[in-house]
Write a structure and sequence with these properties.
single chain, 266 residues, alpha+beta, 7-stranded mixed β-sheet, 6-stranded mixed β-sheet, globular
Amino acid sequence: MTFSLATWNINSVRLRIGLVEEFLNTHQPDVLCLQEIKCENAAFPAKAFRKMGYEHHAVHGQKGYHGVATISKAPLREIASTDYVSKGDTRHVECLVDAGAGPVRVHNFYVPAGGDVPDPVKNEKFDHKLKFLDEMKGLHCDHADVPSILVGDLNIAPLETDVWSHKQLLKVVSHTPIETDGLNEVQASGGWTDCIRQHVPPEEKLFTWWSYRSPNWNESDKGRRLDHVWSSPSLAAKLSGIQVLRDARGWEKPSDHVPVIATFDF
């Protein structure tokens, strides 16, 4: 039995519902985790997803900002969210889904970007990001004997090969040592496995985001791996594939992130 899950920072689900429909019709993941949906729960395009065969939704939205949504072909249970750093913004939703061989807890995250200045004293947004990471360290991959998957736009590229230039980005938010060390601590303290880098060797450059500021994104290839798929080791052992849909960055009016699909064989 195969179970597939996709993660995608869509940068406004209503604006790009056509791209989502194209993606779902083509790839048919069992679960899709969206970040930065930029709408309140009542404005989420639930009818469109139901028409595509995705009847079940766990939505935690906010007008104009942030927001996460997990949609599924199978029922979702125990839907909840955590208000990290008690900011009141909508950056996390979790739920249980039947992956075929039993329930799996899915955590869908949108970690704060952190602004432009990598100094928590001078930049409140960066301080927020670091505190968010600190609180994530308490999230373990196995809770109540249920294995977990953690996905989303974590807004950090931890490895040297996760950015186009390690040296040039060391002082740029998303690749500073304090951020990458923090994310590594979240992974280690929670017992998580980086599924993408389990499948794609760490020596190989891999990106999931290319800035809108780069008109020739494909040619210059100044990307970063900001989108992640982590899981409990027991699930990682069943990982059969990772697909990064780079071509999606070249679609008409695209998100600056591309979908990532993880497939598990049970």
